[in-house]
Design brief:
The complex is a heterodimer of chains A (about 550) and B (about 350). With about 550 residues, chain A is mostly helical. Chain A has helices at about 1-5, 10-30, 40-45, 50-80, 85-90, 100-110, 115-125, 140-165, 170-175, 180-195, 195-210, 215-220, 225-235, 240-265, 285-315, 320-325, 325-360, 360-370, 380-400, 405-410, 415-435, 440-450, 455-465, 470-485, 485-490, 500-510, 515-540, and strands spanning about 80, 280-285. Chain B has 2 domains: about 5-235, Rossmann fold (3-Layer(aba) Sandwich); about 240-350, Nucleic acid-binding proteins (OB fold (Dihydrolipoamide Acetyltransferase, E2P)), CATH 2.40.50.140. In chain B, helix 2 packs parallel to helix 4 (about 140-155). The chains are: A mainly alpha (about 550), B alpha/beta (about 350).
């Protein structure tokens, strides 16, 4: 009891409160098992549920396979070999982060559809002809897999490249010493050593894929996420929507647990002192150098240049849509959300991490870990859970005290929107700062205390200055996510409040893909600028 | 209330069950005294320092600094309020500050305090001049340790705790730093507890030494007594500066060993005639004499600069260390015979 009293201080309480707030939607999802669902539940069970699950699995496997192949392939080539353009590709390949899967889907459709861009190109070169019959169509499941993969492979690429980057030359020399061929060294030494990074990248891809809404709904693929949306929008059955989210969550946690179990006790740490020898990349001969260049260029072209050029092409040939667009307003709206969300997320994630650090409480640590697992919950569910919670709170608590309704403060407002962003992206901010903190030995804090500095001064004089690069990086990662974010913004935004993402979606959902081009293009360009600013840090960390 | 500057009263120090030092009682009587704690690795020496600094809580007992309780079961003054500085064994410099900023960060505390210590003087004596603008990741572990020591010194604490302060420092600077450190601690009257595994360092720097073995403070005394009058076989074995050989007490001032014969000297503790004892024989207790008829076989020879330590094998296979000045007229090779002066006279006889 005495120890508990000592542990509970302002930092502990702040951290505890933040974690509780973030955990509310997760608890809501878990508690769905105790709620009654509508008839739609039994209808769904007898009809589409298995299709949803099957489609989700096919989508997930397809995306994981493609992102693994592209992400690890690119990371390997740029980390271990020297060829023309390698330094350019190192950062250019992360530009794919700027293209959300739904905009990629628009581009894919626009290019390959009947009488689309591919048709126009062929017609201009070869004259009139029946090109539609042999231009491949990437729609449905294939379209969704390609769109999501090329939009998300960057996670695997960035994390695997960082891991390869920090792999010691000793490891490679060890392979040579044991008489391994390059191929054998890659599969027996290099790739297994990068396993945690690859898995971390694939986990992020898996979570994003399973919660993707924009591209699957565009291609008409029914997954658990669209099922959740239908349960809520069409049948007003929040409990069922939550239950489906629970399946999603369990599915993801199961995958992570499986990987953890299969890894057993193997450790993958790289010691920073001693034993590390930086790599000397291998110069490739002409033919191989061309192949490496071609591989990276094709990935860069398909993932980034292709959607940008498609959107640019449409913006140019349909200038009316571009002229009608109030770009400045959309830009300011987007930046307003980015600014407020970054401030809230970074400061609260900072406080939460510091609270965990100073209190060293197992309870608090578990609560924080639990609260960050909300990253796997689709944005739609978070938004709906938040609206439900506010309505409940308004009806039960606020009305009891006979105060004015708070619904208008939190629903359909910037405040509410930023609040749900906070819950959705909290894990990104929290884990980012946690990763920065993991590099500060705890005895650094102790040294500061012993020099007479209080906890607050240690926080402000030591931690914040030391972590400023991490803060910048996290801020920009959050900005990129918020610029691209769609479902939460769609549901929570104030009336007539538009961002580039919502404008593009609204046009696309009305089958006005050419009108969606200009906002999509701007969205990609702004996100690209943010990525370029931080590419140095992203590639490092 | 006691009049001691620091009083550790029956305290159990524990970071974990494995790392526990129980029922420790020791005092530092005067401000400015320097004491050293010696013990094998992992015994809990660092835990003692961390607890005194307030980074760990005591399990029992109490710690008083200047007559104020700073740690007990019910009282725990936070580390930042104790004005106790701890210099860690590992590099704990703030990574985003360069060396001089790290040192100045420590000096910001107690700016008004009388103890006047010039930052440049400290930087100079610790040989940090050439690295003051470097960042912690750009310097060696020995340099980081010295910078950390400078930071702690300049924070002008009431009590300075040094955890293996010179363990990574180059041998070439070590002695010079020890001399200067002792001088500064004395001049500024900074009360200090030094943890070390180097007994010579402890004997030089400390006015008292505590030996921690098997979770207990086994001996707490001035260095001369710890070396010459160890109070247990455990302390003898830990200091490793002599061996215990079997002997029989033959009189008020004599005993008999079957290999060495009669040994004379003053017993520090009375044993009845005829008692079987273990006699502590230290390298300087025996004298070399080429003309002696007591010859033992040389099995090893260690050159220590100022002296040699010969290890000699007796007929009953005891290995006896003998100190010989390195300017001795000739050296003895391994397997040669080595003469021991008789009769053997030892200044003080320590037996167990």
């Amino acid at each position: 009891m005495r120890l508990l009293r000592k542990k509970i201080n302002i930092w502990y309480l702040s951290s505890f409160f933040i974690s509780i707030v973030v955990a509310i939607p997760i608890v809501t999802v878990f508690s769905s098992f105790f709620e009654t669902t509508s008839n739609y539940s039994s209808i769904l069970k007898n009809t589409f549920l298995y299709e949803y699950i099957l489609n989700s699995i096919i989508l997930l496997l397809g995306v994981l396979f493609l992102t693994f192949a592209i992400g690890v392939g690119c990371a390997y080539v740029v980390s271990f070999y020297k060829f023309p353009g390698v330094n350019f590709f190192k950062w250019a390949l992360i530009l794919s982060f700027a293209v959300p899967a739904y905009i990629y889907a628009y581009s894919l459709t626009a290019f390959f559809e009947n009488f689309g861009t591919a048709f126009s190109i062929l017609k201009n070169i070869f004259g009139e002809g029946d090109y539609n019959s042999f231009i491949p169509k990437f729609d449905g499941m294939i379209g969704a897999i390609i769109s999501i993969s090329f939009s998300l492979f960057g996670y695997v690429y960035v994390l695997t490249r960082a891991s390869f980057h920090y792999q010691s030359q000793n490891l490679i020399e060890l392979g040579k010493n044991l008489g391994f061929s390059k191929k054998k060294s890659f599969f027996k030494i290099i790739l297994p050593s990068a396993r945690p990074a690859v898995v971390a990248g694939l986990s992020l891809v898996a979570m994003e894929t399973l919660s993707d809404f924009g591209s699957v709904s565009f291609f008409g693929v029914s997954t658990l996420t669209t099922g959740i949306y239908n349960a809520w929008i069409s049948f007003d059955d929040l409990a069922l929507a939550n239950r489906l989210s629970f399946y999603l969550l369990i599915f993801i946690l199961g995958l992570l647990a499986l990987e953890n179990f299969s890894r057993k006790k193997a450790q993958y740490h790289t010691t920073s002192r001693g034993g590390f020898k930086s790599k000397s990349p291998i110069f490739l001969s002409n033919y191989k150098s061309f192949l490496a260049f071609a591989f990276c260029f094709i990935v860069f072209f398909i993932s980034f240049l292709f959607p940008v050029l498609q959107m640019l092409y449409w913006t140019i040939i349909f200038p009316k849509h571009f002229i009608d667009l109030n770009i400045m307003k959309l830009f300011l709206n987007t930046m307003l959300l980015v600014f407020f969300s970054c401030c809230v997320l970074i400061s609260l994630a900072f406080i939460s991490n510091y609270g965990n650090r100073v209190s060293k409480s197992k309870v608090l640590e578990s609560l924080t870990t639990f609260s960050v697992s909300g990253y796997a919950i689709p944005g739609i569910i978070l938004a709906v859970a938040f609206i439900t919670f506010i309505s409940w709170f308004d009806n039960k608590v606020i009305s009891f005290f006979e105060i004015d309704t708070i619904k208008s403060i939190f629903i359909g407002s910037i405040l509410g929107l930023v609040f749900v962003y906070f819950i959705r992206f909290y894990s990104l901010a929290c884990n980012g700062i946690k990763s920065g903190y993991s590099k500060i030995n705890y005895s650094i804090d102790e040294s500061s205390y012993l020099l007479g500095y209080s906890k607050f001064k240690t926080f402000s004089k030591i931690h914040i200055p030391y972590l400023k690069n991490s803060i910048l990086l996290i801020g920009i990662l959050i900005a990129i996510e918020i610029i691209k974010e769609l479902p939460i913004t769609l549901i929570m935004r104030p009336f007539n409040f538009e961002t580039f993402a919502t404008t593009a979606y609204v046009f696309a959902s009305q089958d006005l893909l050419e009108a969606a081009a200009a906002p999509s293009l701007f969205l990609i360009l702004i996100a690209s600028v943010f990525i370029l600013v931080t590419s140095k840090y992203i590639l490092k960390d | 209330m006691s009049e001691n500057f620091l009083e550790i009263d029956n305290v159990t120090f524990a970071a974990s069950e494995k790392n526990k030092v129980s029922n420790v009682s020791l005092n530092i009587e005067n401000e400015g005294d320097v004491i050293c704690l010696l013990g094998p690795s992992g015994i809990g020496k660092t835990t003692i320092l961390r607890t005194i600094a307030g980074l760990e809580k005591v399990q029992s007992g109490r710690i008083l600094l200047k007559n104020n309780i700073i740690s007990s079961r019910n009282i725990h003054i936070e580390p930042e309020k104790r004005n106790i500085s701890l210099s860690f064994q590992d590099n704990c410099l703030f990574p985003h500050f360069n060396v001089i900023q790290n040192i100045e960060f420590g000096a910001e505390r107690n700016l008004k305090k009388k103890k006047d210590l010039n930052i440049h003087e400290v930087v100079k004596f610790l040989h940090l001049d050439h690295i003051i603008n470097k960042f912690p990741h750009e310097i060696s572990s020995g340099e980081a340790q010295r910078a950390s020591l400078a930071r702690s010194l300049l924070s002008k604490p009431d009590l300075l705790l040094l955890d293996e302060p010179l363990s990574n420092v180059d041998q070439s600077f070590k002695e010079e730093i020890q001399v200067k450190l002792k001088q500064i601690l004395n001049e500024l009257k900074i009360t200090t507890i030094i943890v070390t595994h180097d007994s010579y360092e402890a004997f030089y720097l400390g006015s008292k030494c505590g030996i921690i073995l098997n979770g207990q403070l086994r001996q707490y005394d001035d260095p001369y007594n710890v070396y010459h009058f160890p109070n247990s076989e455990e302390v003898v074995n830990f200091l490793n500066r002599g061996i215990l050989i079997p002997a029989k007490v033959t009189g008020e001032n004599s005993l008999e060993n079957e290999d060495l014969g009669t040994i004379k000297g003053n017993f520090i503790k009375h044993y009845p005639k005829g008692s079987d004892v273990q006699l502590l024989l230290q390298p300087e207790d025996l004298e070399h004499d080429d003309k002696s008829n007591l010859k033992l076989e040389v099995v090893d020879r260690k050159f220590r600069g100022t002296n040699f330590i010969y290890t000699l094998k007796t007929l009953s296979n005891l290995m006896i260390p003998v100190f010989v000045h390195s300017h001795h007229i000739h050296q003895h090779e391994v397997d040669e015979k080595f003469g021991i002066k008789r009769p053997i006279n030892i200044d003080h006889i320590v037996c167990f």
